[in-house]
Amino acid sequence: MTALKLDVRYYHLPQISRVTETDFQHNTLHWTLPIDEIALVMVDVWSDHYVTSHLQRGRDITLECIRPVLEAFRKIGAAVIHAPSPACAKKYPQWTQFAGDNEVKSAPAKGQDDWPPAEFRSKSGKYEKWTRPKEPKDQVFEDIIENRRIIPEVEPRDGDFVIVNGDQLHRLLSHRKILHLFYAGFAANMCVPFRDYGTRAMHNRGYEIILIRDCTSAIEVADTAEDLMLSRAAVVDTELNIGYTVSSSDLVAACEKRA
């Protein structure tokens, strides 16, 4: 068996009475992971974004941290999976592997029951007063959404996989008998945890989740942009509620020892 030897980090919550929140501290596990049971999942590593500060930070992270991990996974023959959103994924020919009718033909909208009322869900009619104000989208915004691709330096190559949604990802993982998913990409507080191929959804399907903590970043707001508080909180959330984390340098080093 060929394997990676790697330390993964999480928050340990002791199940005893009279603890305080300061008792919830990091713990480390020493894992040996079979190469054929791991995959790198790269979420929404887009070449363009309407949030310019996030775009620049994401590109820097991609070139400095994600690309070395990607190259290390390719070198050891581990699965590399690109998950860049449905519309973006279909710009790459690899997306048809493990695609089912729902992905090829586009799945019909799922039926909804009558509560909450349809008008309330859409915030229309008498419920329009609860609509959150939004700025109108400009043409540049629309062009970015339509034309963005994966950052060129980490685009799919022969042997990589590209997936459209969580069902296709699950189909691929099931076929390859993959159990452990290393996540990289953006944004750490939006698409990475909340896409149907993201960390929460795949954790709920039973997979082991390992976020590469310096291979992601959140979309920050005015109150957090300076200290990247939301990015740090996303890592804590993963370690507390979803799975584990590693650094890119430790992961690359483990791959090099294996290689």
Structure description:
It is a single chain. Helix 1 packs parallel to helix 10 (248-258). The mean pLDDT is 95. With 259 residues, the protein is an alpha/beta fold. The strands form 2 sheets. The chain has a 6-stranded parallel β-sheet. The protein has a two-stranded antiparallel sheet with strand order 1-2. The chain is 36% helix and 20% strand. It is globular.
Q: The biggest beta sheet, please?
A: 6 strands, parallel
Spans of at least 5 consecutive residues whose pLDDT stays below 50 are none
How far the N terminus sits from the C terminus, by CA atoms, comes to 13 Å
Strand content: 15-25%
**Could you say which overall geometry the principal axes of the C-alpha atoms support?**
globular
The helix fraction, in percent, is: 25-40%
- State the total count of DSSP E strands: 8
Order of strands, widest sheet: 5-4-3-6-7-8
In short, what is this structure?
This protein has helices at residues 52-76, 86-89, 101-105, 118-122, 139-147, 166-176, 191-194, 199-204, 229-242, 248-258; strands at residues 3-12, 25-34, 38-43, 79-83, 161-162, 180-186, 208-217, 244-246.
